[in-house]
Amino acid sequence: MNPQTTRQIRSVRSNWYLWLFPLFAVLISAWLFREYFTQRGSTLMIAFSDASGLQPEKTRVRFRGVTIGVVKKVTISEDGKDVIAHVLLQRDAEHFAVKGSKFWVVLPNVNFQGVSGLETLFEGTYIAAQPGSAKGPRETAFKGHIGAETTESLEDTIIYYLETDQLGSVSVGNAVTFRGLKVGVVSLVNLSKDSRTVIVQINIQKKYTKLVRTNSIFWRKVGVQANLGFFSAEVKINSLESLMRGGIDLWTPENAGPIAEGQSKFTLSASPPKGWEKWNPKLEFSE
Length: 287
Description:
Blueprint: H1 3-14, H2 20-39, E1 40-48, E2 60-63, E3 66-76, E4 83-90, E5 102-105, E6 109-111, E7 114-116, H3 120-123, E8 127-130, E9 141-143, E10 145-146, E11 157-164, E12 175-178, E13 181-191, E14 198-205, E15 217-220, E16 224-228, E17 233-237, H4 240-245, E18 248-251, E19 265-269
Parallel strand pairs: 1-9, 2-8, 5-10, 11-19, 12-18, 15-19
Antiparallel strand pairs: 1-4, 2-3, 3-4, 5-8, 6-7, 11-14, 12-13, 13-14, 15-18, 16-17
């Protein structure tokens, strides 16, 4: 073996540790690659009426303040009517990829009920989420909404729809009451397809659905009622909650009709009908 070859062998042996750096780089890259795919969850497609500040790689999806996903890209639907947010869920948020899950864009809101969504002014727009039933079938395509939805649990409830020309003081989260008892909640407010009326979605607890009859009447709660005449005047002030928060009252006439099926539509009146205080039908409900 000549001296030059000997020197080369010694050089390689003395510098063998230099090969550790690229080896470590490959191992670290492989580990990061594995971590990325093990934490990667389902991809959801959530349709919104407009983008409303949604930004790829920036807009987060949150549940109770905890980030569970991120918007990866935003596209236009094939019919051009909606904006599709492609959301990548985290691995531990797979239970949101089920039928019944709800998603809505959080916007700043200030009203009599309080202040909400102001964190978006500093942190940017985000999508709030509410999981569906744990036993529900898997689903990856959803219809999202702009603005708040109720944060109350809607499990064991039945949906009904109320139609009105003017929404008034009714808003998402308001209570639906019967004899002053809360039996449901306003879960969603939207314009009708022709934009001529407002559709109010309410969720009534299942144990109270026997109270909802085909001829039941719904009206907006009024904080102050006045009956003025030439010789007398009567002013009635309802509860502080109805004065500040509004809501919807449910009542049924004396000759109660059959139990209304879920998804039934009713008219939401601006005020109660005359003589409603005398209605006292016997309506049995399940405990």
